[in-house]
Design brief:
2 domains; alpha/beta; Rossmann fold; about 400 residues
Length: about 400
């Protein structure tokens, strides 16, 4: 039986990184986040994972000993809050969220996994920020080989979104075969467009008064589905998914279709905007059917003013995209549920790692773990056989000696 590799998901949010890990063949043992709203969907979509709502900055060795009960962990993944390094935000040096970068690497030292993967915004490599990254990386135990910080673009991984992020990977050479930056960059993948991603998604439905409703609606009827849409419609493995969402999907429905109310004047303005152009007032970009989506933004929580992020416009309808359309563009499957509100759902999406990107990177890492394990097993077997051969040789010499006597 193949070994079960175990992951700890830090700053887990709604679970994009964790979902990629599961799809790559890892088990998420523990997921930690301080925001209970962002983390609420993790509990629904990962029913077997232990979800902890807590402040990572105060979790010390003793806390992790109690959480993990001395369980051996293969990998630590996470995307520390990026707002402190964002090119769009204020990028203030005294933003307390910036310290969480160091706490990620401090936690790696406590858990002592075989590898770790940290994700953050491209602005982390800007002057004034990259020095902070370099200092944080120096915290990591010397056992780890840390690859250079690398910018990856979700579009290159088969996601219909232009989303650049910094990835830092480290691993213990004693536990894992060598890996390089070039190993994690996919080559020759087919380009996925907005049309591939959302042309079969239901038109928006009216917001309902029932606060427990997730905006279920059936798919549009179209002549043929793209490979991407087929993949997004697939049912989850047995260990994943909310039973309500799975039942809905089996009947041809998905969540996240509530509409956004626009005035007639706004809708008239949106009609005039051509695909690929940006509305001068709202700054919303109209998606092009044959193009890709710009980076989805998160907006802010109640502690930072409750601002909703600007959302792209639908290519042929005078409106902003729905949650489900955003999820498709970010690489989340249709069984995955977010929040009942559009505001928090887009906060989840904007803060998430695309599961497709995460799966791709972690699949490469898993193959290196397996290769190292197989090499070790082969070496152990070889040594065992050599030992048996020596024993046989010694026995034969003893027998020959007895015959002479």
């Amino acid at each position: 039986m193949a070994a079960k590799y175990k992951i700890v998901d830090l700053f887990s949010g709604c679970g994009g990184f964790g979902l990629g890990a599961k799809q790559a063949g890892f088990d998420v043992v523990v997921a930690v986040d301080i925001d209970p709203v962002l983390q609420s969907s993790y509990k629904q979509n990962f029913p077997n994972a232990r979800v902890l709502n807590g402040d990572l900055s105060v979790m010390d060795t003793e806390a992790w000993r109690l959480v993990l009960s001395n369980e051996s962990i293969d990998g630590v993944i996470g995307g520390p809050p990026c707002q402190g390094y964002s090119r769009i935000g204020k990028n203030e040096a005294d933003d307390p969220r910036r310290s969480l970068l160091r706490h990620f690497f401090r936690t790696v030292n406590i858990i002592q996994p075989k590898f770790f993967v940290m994700e953050n915004v491209e602005g982390l490599l800007d002057a004034g920020n990259v020095e902070e990254l370099n200092k944080a990386v120096k915290i990591v135990d010397k056992r780890y080989k840390v690859l250079p910080a690398t910018v990856v673009d979700a579009h290159e991984f088969g996601v219909p979104t232009k989303r650049k992020r910094v990835v830092v990977i480290g691993y213990d050479p004693k536990e894992m075969a060598a890996i390089s930056v070039s190993d994690i960059i996919p080559k020759g993948l087919a380009r996925v467009t907005v049309k591939d991603a959302i042309s079969d998604i239901s038109p928006p439905i009216a917001q309902k008064k029932d606060k427990e409703d997730y905006g279920w609606a059936a798919y549009r009827k179209i002549k043929s589905l793209s490979d991407y849409a087929e993949k997004m419609r697939a049912l989850p493995p047995k260990t994943l998914g909310w039973n309500v969402a799975i039942e809905k999907l089996q009947s041809g429905q998905a969540s996240g279709h509530f509409d956004t109310t626009h005035t007639e004047a706004v809708k008239a303005r949106y009609v005039e905007i051509k695909q690929g152009e940006t509305d001068k007032i709202s700054r919303s970009k109209k998606l092009a059917w044959n193009g890709v989506c710009p980076t989805l933004r998160a907006g802010t929580g109640a502690d930072k003013g409750s601002y909703q992020a600007v959302r792209p416009l639908h290519p042929s309808e005078s409106r902003v995209i729905t949650v489900r359309e955003g999820a498709r563009l970010q690489g989340f499957p249709d069984w995955f549920c977010f929040h009942r509100t559009k505001w928090h759902s887009f906060r989840m999406l904007g803060n998430s790692v695309s599961p497709i990107v995460a799966e791709s990177i972690l699949s490469v890492i898993k193959s290196k773990l397996r290769k190292n394990s197989e090499t070790k097993q082969a070496s152990d077997l070889s040594n065992k056989l050599k030992g048996k051969a020596r024993n046989v040789e010694t026995k034969n010499k003893d027998d020959q000696s007895r015959v002479r006597r």
